[in-house]
Amino acid sequence: MSKKENPTSLIVIFGATGDLAKRKLYPSIYRLYKNGSISKNFAVVGVARRPLTNEEFRSNVSKSVSSVANGDGNVEEFSSHFYYHPFDVTSSESYQQLKGLLGDLDSDYETNGNRIFYLAMAPEFFGTIATNLKSEGLTETDGWKRLVIEKPFGHNLPSAKDLNAEIRQAFDESEIYRIDHYLGKEMVQNIEVIRFANALFEPLWNNRYISNIQITSSEVLGVEDRGRYYENSGALRDMVQNHMLQMVALLAMEPPIKLNPEEIRSEKVKVLRAMRKIEQDDVEDYFVRGQYGAGFVDGDQVQGYREGNSVDPNSNTETYVAGKLLIDNFRWAGVPIYIRTGKRMSEKSTKIIVQFKDIPMNLYYNRGEKVDPNLLVINIQPEEGITLHLNAKKSGKDVTTTPIKLDYTNNCIDGINTPEAYERLIYDAMRGDMTNFTHWDEVALSWSFIDEISKAWENTRAFDFPNYESGSMGPKQADGLLEKDGFHWWPL
Ligand SMILES: NC(=O)C1=CN([C@@H]2O[C@H](COP(=O)(O)OP(=O)(O)OC[C@H]3O[C@@H](n4cnc5c(N)ncnc54)[C@H](OP(=O)(O)O)[C@@H]3O)[C@@H](O)[C@H]2O)C=CC1
Ligand SMILES: O=C1O[C@H](COP(=O)(O)O)[C@@H](O)[C@H](O)[C@H]1O
């Protein structure tokens, strides 16, 4: 990993007029620029088809960073580093002109030939772009070259393998940065620290003391205008294959011998390998799917998934998934990890709840008192922090118990302004730190787990769809998953 703190580079963004570039990438690069994390020796080249001049492009970039710039006077200076190069990425001839532009900018901005190619476009273009970058000589540079790839990385294991083989013709694995933006979130990165820097937790982090783990990532928004993409994806591919399984891997991995990308990835891979594969015939016992119908969100009536743009009125696509995962290794045998994620739920929230086993004998039972289990809650978003649920004595003369909470909230501490996930990840890609990007082995193992479930769901219609109302916490059947093991989703 490079130790350089102010990296210099050209960043070529394919998909420069798209939603992701405008909403996430430009504001993140601006924040890096504003807080001095990247040197002034950088330039960004935007690629997309629509005809824009450099001036029009810069003005669009300025608009998209205005919400994070808060009226700062440096937005124009920032936007002056942006260049626009319109072409259709499927036409190989246009890459030669781009090559010329990059050569000029390399010398104008003294970027030492360092290049990031950021693919923020529909995945069907990923392979073509990588191939053309190589065949047209854009990857021949005096500095380093890196390919940053957005999700989804394939649609299933065979297509992911094909894509990987295609991009590996042009880039080495050590140059491929597969984005999973959850790995850039402050509290997802904190999982390792909470586990490995606290004597209080690490000795208890196993099947002797933990009864189950629950990971919930709920969204209030529906599928909006992404119906075309989502119809081919569903919640399983959109959220579980990547973000949810990455959180599982971080929660369950063994302590790495060193905090370097290779060692961390190797431990995550072992977790994914140990995850019990679910055969198609058994999917119903472990997974529940849902699709939202009409309902109310913040008091407003909203339509169901099937009424959305570019969605089949009889769609079989799931907008909600709950599942029970088992990791068959020494540490985790017998501890279910429940996951759930969905759109149009009652709140936007991502949380991990670690439920500890009950104490061997409850001295307070005799008095008819129930003692709650200890819970460690890792709040990923919107609040960032941890809450520890304990039991203590209720104030007064009698010895009775009361649940108490120890809370740590990042957002409440003055001066803490945690970087956006994309801000961190772009910075890491510029510094050459691959820790928070997914290695091919992780992608492949995740797909091989997910493929069995998606095959089972594609082969059987969900006759009860839509089976949850917009604004609810998902289908009732998801409660059954935990109830049969004697647990329930914690409503925290
Ligand atoms: N939007 C989001 O919040 C998220 C997006 N992603 C991923 O990021 C990627 C981009 O998503 P998003 O920004 O939403 O997509 P958009 O549809 O908003 O943008 C697509 C971009 O690709 C350009 N484009 C399309 N076809 C061509 C072509 N043949 N040649 C050159 N440019 C082309 C479009 O510009 P033009 O029409 O001018 O050619 C546009 O700039 C996808 O892989 C998506 O899965 C991942 C997580 C979140
Ligand atoms: O990757 C994706 O993530 C978002 C949810 O991300 P978050 O950071 O807002 O939790 C999800 O809406 C989208 O469908 C999916 O593609």
TrEMBL record:
InterPro entries listed in its UniProt record: G6P_DH, G6P_DH_AS, G6P_DH_C, G6P_DH_NAD-bd, NAD(P)-bd_dom_sf
Every Glucose-6-phosphate dehydrogenase NAD-binding domain range: 12-190
Active-site residues per Swiss-Prot or TrEMBL entry: H243
Catalysis performed (reactions): D-glucose 6-phosphate + NADP(+) = 6-phospho-D-glucono-1,5-lactone + NADPH + H(+)
Domain Glucose-6-phosphate dehydrogenase C-terminal: 193-490
Cell cycle as UniProt keyword: no
Binding-site residues for NADP(+), renumbered to this chain: G15, A16, T17, G18, D19, L20, A21, K22, R49, D88, V89, K151
Enzyme Commission numbers on file: 1.1.1.49
Pfam families named in the record: G6PD_C, G6PD_N
Domain of life: Bacteria
Sites where the protein binds substrate: H181, K185, E219, D238, K343, K348
DNA repair listed as a keyword: no
Pathway: Carbohydrate degradation; pentose phosphate pathway; D-ribulose 5-phosphate from D-glucose 6-phosphate (oxidative stage): step 1/3
Top EC group: oxidoreductase
Keywords: Carbohydrate metabolism, Glucose metabolism, NADP, Oxidoreductase
Similarity remark: Belongs to the glucose-6-phosphate dehydrogenase family.
Function per UniProt: Catalyzes the oxidation of glucose 6-phosphate to 6-phosphogluconolactone.
Name of the protein in its database record: Glucose-6-phosphate 1-dehydrogenase
Organism of provenance: Sutcliffiella horikoshii
Taxonomy of the source species: Bacteria, Bacillati, Bacillota, Bacilli, Bacillales
Gene: zwf
